[in-house]
Amino acid sequence: MGTALALLACTTHAAEPDAPKVPEYALDTSWPKLPLPNHWALGLINGIYVDAHNHLWLYHSPELVPKYALGAAQNPPTGKCCVAAPAIIEFDEAGNVLRAWGGPEDAKVQGYDWPTAGHGLYVDYKGNIWIGGSQTRVAADGSPPDGLYLKFSPDGKFLLQIGGKGPSKGSLDTTMLSGAAAVDVDPATNEAFIADGYGNHRVIVFDADTGEFKRQWGAYGKPPTDLKIPRYDGGPTLPKQFNLVHCIRIAKDGLVYVCDRLNDRLQVFKKDGTFVTEHVYEPMTRGSGSVGNVSLWPDEKQTFMVMNDPGNFQTVILRRSDLSEVARFGHYGTWAGEYHRNHQMEFDLKGNIYTSEDHRVQKLRIVNGVTP
């Protein structure tokens, strides 16, 4: 079963002659299978990603499950519901939970730093899981900033830590991150490209197995800077510095897409950091910005991209060849099919879209027969 709430809100732009037909979507209410097992409850959802098996991986913060929802976790229990789910959960295509692991207690056992404020999940070409953290200053409870990215096996074995806990050392330092938001690993070089963007203002690249620093760049491929530059005001002059580097995605043809969220733009680079082009979307958007993340359509040419627009509570379909919009839909709300603090959107291997919000993931299925 599904509802056409998302589809009915869709605005499709005029297509060029012979242009590929654009997919249209409606909410799939059958995903995931509910309730979750073991009386699990979710905290803030930090990241989602679809792997090579078409499985959805979800990363959330168990420590942020509301206390009123943890009755079953008390000793003695104060209610039948609930307990915090492990931090990393794998779902199959039908929405069944396959495995789950991770969290601060696992970090203590295996001897690595767990993110204070989790952010981003990525599954690399070897099946390994990457997560980061977005906190950039000491919190009210004394918890330290996040200057790290972590890599695990699919079963949760700790493999690599890049950086560590603590304050930023600046956007030119190669030993620490600062509020890193996302990562993509290039199969051709086994390099990890990190969007180091909540605190720093750069893309930084490391060897994905050793953590050895390779290179870095800021907006327009220039050296990154920490100068206090205002966010984009919608005018003709675009900022020369990133303002919240929130996503990074590498296409099959080697182009690297970087979301400059609070500047409402997508910048494109070669893998060596050479600037190629940029595109601004909804330039008068303030608040959360209009360019949250992008995901690539799973055909050979990666014809389309889906872009999350958090400032306008919308899903945007782009034509990758020229970064133009071909469809836009969605609006604010807490009902099924609406968006509440939409944070990330990802294509699966069939072109369906998963969307994440603070405490839920929704699946949008294709309804007009378009296939990758």
Structure description:
The chain has helices at residues 5-8, 104-110; strands spanning 2-3, 11-12, 25-28, 40-41, 45-50, 56-60, 83-84, 88-91, 97-101, 118-123, 129-133, 146-152, 158-165, 180-186, 191-196, 202-207, 213-217, 245-250, 256-260, 265-269, 275-280, 293-296, 304-309, 314-319, 324-329, 344-347, 353-356, 361-366. With 372 residues, it is mainly beta. This is NHL repeat-containing protein. Keywords: Glycoprotein, Signal.
Task: Tell me briefly what this model is.
The protein is mostly beta strands.
Derived structural class: mainly beta
The average pLDDT value, as a whole number, equals 95
Q: Helicity, in percent? A: under 10%
Q: How would you sum up the global shape?
A: globular
Biggest sheet strand line-up: 1-3-28-27-26
Number of helices: 2
- Low-pLDDT windows of residues: 1-9
Radius of gyration: 20 Å
Element-by-element helix/strand order: EHEEEEEEEEHEEEEEEEEEEEEEEEEEEE
**Beta-strand percent range:** 35-45%
User: What is the CA–CA distance across the termini?
Assistant: 22 Å
Sheet with the most strands, sense and barrel status: 5 strands, antiparallel
- What is the number of E strands? 28
Core attributes:
38% strand; single chain; 5-stranded antiparallel beta sheet; mainly beta; 372 residues; globular
Furnish the topology, listing elements before pairings:
Blueprint (H helix, E strand, L loop, with lengths): L1 E2 L1 H4 L2 E2 L12 E4 L11 E2 L3 E6 L5 E5 L22 E2 L3 E4 L5 E5 L2 H7 L7 E6 L5 E5 L12 E7 L5 E8 L14 E7 L4 E6 L5 E6 L5 E5 L27 E6 L5 E5 L4 E5 L5 E6 L12 E4 L7 E6 L4 E6 L4 E6 L14 E4 L5 E4 L4 E6 L6
Parallel strand pairs: 4-7
Antiparallel strand pairs: 1-3, 2-25, 3-28, 5-6, 6-8, 8-9, 10-11, 11-12, 12-13, 14-15, 15-16, 16-17, 18-19, 19-20, 20-21, 22-23, 23-24, 24-25, 26-27, 27-28
